[in-house]
Amino acid sequence: MAESRGDRMVAVTIYVLLSFIALLVIYPLFFVMIASISSPEMVMRGEVWLWPKELSFVGYERLFANSELMRGYLNTLLYTVVGTAINLVMTIAAAYPLSRQDFRGRNFFTFMIVFTMFFSGGMIPTYLLIRDLGMLNTFWVMVIPSALSVWNILIMRTFFQNSIPKEVQEAAFIDGASNTKLILRIVLPLSIPVLAVMVLFYAVGHWNSYFSALLYLSDRDRYPLQLFMREILIQGQMQEMVEISDDSLARSLMDAEAIKYAAVIVTNLPMLLLYPFLQKYFIKGVMVGAVKG
Amino acid sequence: MEPRAVLKNKAPGQDIQTKTSFKKELRQWTKNWELYVIFLPVIAYFIIFHYLPMYGVQIAFKDFIANQGITGSPWVGFKHFERFFDSYYFTRIMENTIVIGLYELAAGFPIPIILALMIHEVRSSKFRRFVQTVTYMPHFLSTVVMVGLVVMFLSPVSGLVNSMIVAFGGERISFMTEPGWFKSIFVWSGVWQTMGWSSIIYLAALAGIDPQLHEAAKVDGAGRLKRIWHVNLPGIAPTMMILLILNIGSVLGIGFEKVFLMQNPLNMEASDVIATNVYRSGILGAQYSFSAAVGLFNSIINFILLVTVNRIARKAGSSSLW
């Protein structure tokens, strides 16, 4: 059936609108990228629009010369790796029993878990608890209180319920396998896709989080990258990095901008590199969650 | 005990259909003992990190004294709530919280739906992939970087936006310190960051619509717009309803993280919300009881909103959370 004129108009409008939206989203990110490798002077004068001008890496140089920042990068890496490992084990431990119809008490436990999604004690009682547990300013405060996400438990439970055939599990039981063996040998190997999704969701969460660090950490040696980024990007604290010997105020102002552009790129580097490869997994995760609604 | 039922009980994942004796009931619990062992840390986690704070929320009705602990401190009833309601900041905080929440709902709810409906109409899979890849990307920026970008682009001295305004003959605007701009910047930067990601769930729903409906509509002479309106939109209505309930339930639960980062002394009158107030008076000012009361007030209102909206949805016969 040939498309009518009206339909073609609609299609063209949609293409134009979507192109505009895509441009609106990508241009700021693209600009930061080219600005980070251009001479700060050219950026300041507004000459950088479509491609970098007078290649310069001054922002990156200043950034990497800052040892505190590298410390933050390392901290974040540690929090992300250890935190994600804990998340994964705990989420499996929560989701698998809940996925089994013959797990007595599952309705009660599910309610107990989901209720925390809609009601919480709030910031202050949680803070006092963490303080009383002696977890302030420790490594563990960054990984234990965030050990489980209710939403991710639900995604994984749905996957276990819908994608692992019951017959396989029953057969394993008849062959005399224990529950532990069943999980390790059969369920987990069949769940690689959802495990990948979980790793990604949790890892991105740890990488990007700043709030628990802001609340619970006061020791700069333990600060994650995001807190240093907050100082650089939002509070504009970078006296150490902008050299005092720089003769004019304008000069140091420009360097400060260059450092900011470089900081954005450096912070998001792992995501920017991995994103194209991981995109389909992320989307799968959202879809699995959507099944439950 | 009939043998058939025993065999049945051995298989996991099946409900017992016959009425069981006490012994059998006990066996149901004990045969999966390993599952309970595995589940134990999960229960411990939720009790410690979620239910203990709920127990600790009682300090909202007490005068918290550090060396007497939560249970030992004396009860004072609604003193802290009354202080909050009477305080000079109460109107300002509530107004900001409600206005930002509703503004966010009005912009953040429909835009992902429109985006998904448009993406769904794209025939070229290359273009479609391109639009999706691009619009999902900002979702992965951290709040800190997101706010950092906003500050950079809107900077009155070196920001791109102001350069453009000047290029078109306008006056530089100091966006971040002008209270009047705060709410729009907050909401629209949020839309920029999340519209793509939020559209995924609608795209999934759209993919599940029976193509025969479209064929039938075509035969009846419906054009594209008509089919979007009469086939696609009703097709994703249940998903829309669920997300609307969730969104309304969190209207007053404005993310602390972003507001806090965008806040500065100059835009405070437009940016102070419940959560940032709790942080300031509680964590920074150490008025634990008072700020716990403010936080509890917020949680209760959120909870009531969610339950009410869900009830209305259920009464109206549309899909609901429970």
From TrEMBL, chain A:
The keyword Cytoplasm does not apply. It holds the Pfam family BPD_transp_1. It comes from the Bacteria. It is found in: Cell membrane. Gene3D superfamilies: MetI-like (1.10.3720.10). PROSITE patterns: ABC_TM1 (PS50928). GO terms for biological process: transmembrane transport. Signal peptide: none annotated. The keyword Chloroplast does not apply. Residues 73-278 form the ABC transmembrane type-1 domain. The chain crosses the membrane at residues 12-37, 77-96, 108-130, 136-156, 182-204, 258-278. InterPro entries: MetI-like, MetI-like_sf. Its main location: membrane. GO terms for cellular component: plasma membrane. Keywords: Cell membrane, Membrane, Transmembrane, Transmembrane helix, Transport. It is a multi-pass membrane protein. Belongs to the binding-protein-dependent transport system permease family. This is Carbohydrate ABC transporter permease. It comes from Paenibacillus lemnae.
